[in-house]
Structure formats: C-alpha cells, structure tokens
C-alpha cells in the first residue's frame, strides 16, 4: 500500500465509548442551520492520509487527513492546521491517531510534517509560519485545478491547534485574520517570554480559544492556567489531571495505558471545532450551558467571555 495515500477504515466503535459531546458564539460564515444541527461526534467517515501537494515555497511539508469519500460530504469542509509537540517540523507521528480521528468526524486536518518522515527525536523552536503557511496551502489547494479538494474547503472555517511547543506556534498563528478558532493543547506562553514569545501575544487573539491541559503533573499546566486567565477572547479551560503532558495523545491515564483517555481528548477537540467552526448547538452545550463535559468523570472545566444565549 502506498504510504503517501491510504485509506483507513475507522470503526465508529473506536469512539462509541465516549459520550462527551461540544459552537462559535454564532454560526461561522458559510455554515447553514442544517449543517449545524448534526453534531460532528455523530459523523464517522473512513479517512485518507496523504502528502500535501504543491507545497513549493512553504515553510515545511504537510500531511493531510480527510474523509475518503468527499461526495458523501454536504457542503464544504472545515479545516484545522495542527502543530507538533517539541516543535517537530519534519515528521508528525505523535498525533497521528488523534488527527485521523478528528478527520473521521468531518474535518480536514493539515498536520505539520511530511507523510513519510519516520519518527525521530527532533526538537525545534517555535516557527508560527509553519501553521500560517498551512492555511496558505489550504487556500491554494481549494483553488488548484486537479486538486481533490478544489472547492471542497471552507476558508471561513479554519482553526489552528498544537501540542506543547506546537501550541505556542498555534497561539501566535491565532492572530492571523484567517483563523476562526484556536486550541492550545498542553501548552501556553511562559511568563519570561521563553522561546521568543511572551504572554502579551494573548492580546492578539481575536477568536475563541481552548486551553486543554493534563493537570498538575503536566509541565504546561501552570502556563495553561495563566494563559486562560489572561485571555480576553471567549475562552474555555479543560483539565484532566489523569493525562499529564502527553496522556491525551498516547492514551495514558495516570501513567497507565488507557485508550479511553485519547478518545476523551479527541471528543473535546472535535466538539471544540464543531462549536467554534460549525456553530453546532449541541457542541456548544458540551462546554457551556448544561456543560456535558463538566459532569464527565475526572474533568474540570471553566469558561468566560461567551455571550449568554
């Protein structure tokens, strides 16, 4: 099977155990009420993983995850560009399972790093352009003749996200006017401006922001809390102390293998995207109002600056 393009038949049972469910303050441009009414968590598609074409002058190579049968999708697809932990810019194996599952729920995921780059111990420094260039690739591919994604992508529904160091890249990239939602995953700016970006960057955010962390054992926990407190945009903080720094993505709870932890984290991320990009009311209630996530075992949730519905 060609490693640059293959279809994974992902069973809905993989996430059926997760009943956690999660939209922007209003409907994003291009979203119809019909689209918003069916939660993303109720959709599940086989997924294609493939190399991003025609990256030429962009900062890095990208890997794309998308629903395999685009003809089954009604309307254009929302997009999320995701950065890696340790600011790895060559490969993207760390979040492979997460990105596949997010795409299965009806999103196009553009992941920093080449599709065929093996796992390695690369450690980089933040380069927010790897995220914003991912958005540029989305714009180009939506217009390119011969592209499977031509006229399939909704450029008004683009989110950025990243884990750890990649979260810093996403938070900086969140200032880009093309961005409609931000997710900081086990991340946050340091008080001392480490890596060249200080907490003053938070004032540049103009969209809803999610701050997800793994509790006191997560090295990013204090930064995540402080960044949430300083954010002036509508924001949600979601914490699960069992996850630590990487448990959400490797399926670990309190250091022990537990695939349900990854499923829960995927549900949080999918609902956040469904909330802030699709305007889904069920997804909104996952974080606000009745707050489904608030009653999920092990989770702590806070929110602010959202208008009362």
UniProtKB/TrEMBL annotation:
Keywords for the protein's UniProt record, in alphabetical order: Signal
Superkingdom of origin organism: Bacteria
UniProt keyword Methyltransferase present: no
Keyword Signal among record annotations: yes
Pfam families reported in the protein's UniProt record: PETase (PF12740)
Domain PET hydrolase/cutinase-like stretches: 63-185
Gene3D superfamilies for the chain: alpha/beta hydrolase
Stretch forming the signal peptide: 1-28
Protein name (Swiss-Prot/TrEMBL): PET hydrolase/cutinase-like domain-containing protein
């Amino acid at each position: 099977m060609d490693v640059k393009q293959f279809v994974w038949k992902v069973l809905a049972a993989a996430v059926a155990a997760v009943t956690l469910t999660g939209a922007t303050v209003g409907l994003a441009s291009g979203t119809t009420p019909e689209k918003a009414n069916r939660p993303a968590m109720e959709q599940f598609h086989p997924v294609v993983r493939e190399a991003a074409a025609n990256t030429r002058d962009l900062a890095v190579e990208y890997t794309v995850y998308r629903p395999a049968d685009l003809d089954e999708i009604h309307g254009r697809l929302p997009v999320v560009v995701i950065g890696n932990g340790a600011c790895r810019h060559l490969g993207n194996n760390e979040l492979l399972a997460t990105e596949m599952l997010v795409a299965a729920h009806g999103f196009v995921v553009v992941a920093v790093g080449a599709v065929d780059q093996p796992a390695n111990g690369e450690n980089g420094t933040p380069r927010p352009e790897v995220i914003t260039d991912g958005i540029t690739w989305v714009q180009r591919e939506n217009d390119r003749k011969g592209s499977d994604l031509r006229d399939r992508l909704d450029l008004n529904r683009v989110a950025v996200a990243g884990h750890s160091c990649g979260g810093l890249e996403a938070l900086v990239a969140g200032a880009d006017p093309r961005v409609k939602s931000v997710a900081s995953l086990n991340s946050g700016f340091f008080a001392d401006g480490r890596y060249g970006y200080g907490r003053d960057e938070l004032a540049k955010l103009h969209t809803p922001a999610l701050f997800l962390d793994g509790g006191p054992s997560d090295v990013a926990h204090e930064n995540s809390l402080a960044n949430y407190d300083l954010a002036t945009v509508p924001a949600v903080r979601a914490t699960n102390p069992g996850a630590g720094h990487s448990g959400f993505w490797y399926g670990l709870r309190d250091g022990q293998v537990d695939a349900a932890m990854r499923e829960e984290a995927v549900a949080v991320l999918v609902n956040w995207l469904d909330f802030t990009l699709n305007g889904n009311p069920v997804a909104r209630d996952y974080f606000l109002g009745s707050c489904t996530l608030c009653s999920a075992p092990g989770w702590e949730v806070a929110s602010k600056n959202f208008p009362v519905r």
